[in-house]
Every structure is written in C-alpha cells, then in structure tokens.
Prior knowledge:
The protein has helices at about 10-20, 45-55, 135-160, 165, and strands at about 25, 30, 80-85, 90. By secondary structure, it is mainly alpha-helical. The protein has a two-stranded antiparallel sheet with strand order 1-2. It has a two-stranded antiparallel sheet with strand order 3-4. A hairpin with a 6-residue loop joins β3 (about 80-85) and β4. The longest helix has 25 residues, at about 135-160.
Amino acid sequence: GGFIVVRPSLDIYQELRQQVLIGNFTERDAWGDLGFGGFYGDQTIQGLWTYYYGHLISSNSSGGGVELNRCYYNQMADNPIEVHPNTNKSYCRTGVKLDECEDCRDTNFQDVYSIHFTVCGKPWWCPRSVVQRGENQNSICGAFLARWYEVRQSLQSVWDGNRTTANTPYNITMNYTSNEWSLSYRQGICGQDGNGVYIPLRIPSPSRKT
C-alpha cells in the first residue's frame, strides 16, 4: 500500500533484504524498537521503508529519500488530528503543532496527484456518503470517487469501441452538504437506481488471429 517512487538500486535492495532477515520487529515497538509501525502494512514494505529511510539512512546521504506531502500524493482524506487515549488531549498525527497541522480534507482536488481509496471507501463498494465524518471530507471523497467513476467509464468506452465518448468529460454533479450524494456522479455504475450494486466492467473478448 501507500505511494512510493523509487530509482532501482541493487545495493539498497540488499540492505532492505538484510533488515528483513534480521527481523528486528516487535508488535509493541515495531521496527528497531523505535516505533516505526502501528499502521497497516507496518510489518511489510510500508513499515520497513519508513524505518530504513527514517532511521537507518539519513535524508542527506546519497541513498536518502524525500517524504512527499501526503495531501497531494497518496491522498486519503483522513483526519490528521487524534485524541490521546491516556491524556485525552488532541495531537497532530504528523508530529507538528496543532495550529500547524495540515488537514488534507481541505485540499483542492485539482492539486492532488494520486489518491488512496481507503478512508473514502473503495469505489466498487458504491459508498453513498461519508457526511458523518465531516462535510469537508464528504466533499473531497465525492470528488475522488467521481473522478474514479469517470476514468472507469472512459475505459469502458474504449473497450466498447466508442473512443470519441471516452475522451468526453462527464458532467458530474454532487451535492456535498446533503446526507446522501447525488447519484449522477456514479455514471450508472452502481445500478441505475443507485442501489449500491456495482456493475463490473465489460471486458472485451481477446481478438483471434486468422
């Protein structure tokens, strides 16, 4: 999971492989007993690479990495503020002060490079609304899902042989403040009546050589 851009390096691959063989991971303290974990995928690539680039390798070294802004890459529309179970005090999950905590749900959709469908729900689940999580989240999730349905319909148009339709932008209308999104953004993919039943892609039959 997540979003990672890499330049292939056999040396780094061997170093990562060595860390897996060492297996310095515990359920309580994660990788290196330093807390590089506590999230989905922490035992695998997401946790391993966080540990490797966040601790074993300095970001100023030749093999270092750059952490991208999560509001523009791998956008999930998640709430950045949580409440500590012991102190009952709010804190920013990115480690900065609360007044500096960037809320990705307020990001302009046009500025987002890649989306991770997790908090908003998978498009093929045909989610009706996430308004209970806040209207700003409802808005950005609606834009994410609408774009996915648009791309999906574009692919279907190509497979159906209608390449002109495939390049035509769809008129997507969403009512972000209602308790239920307008059904038009789903392009009929979740049933014509919006009953939440996902209609799979019609995959073309492979052409046969004569």
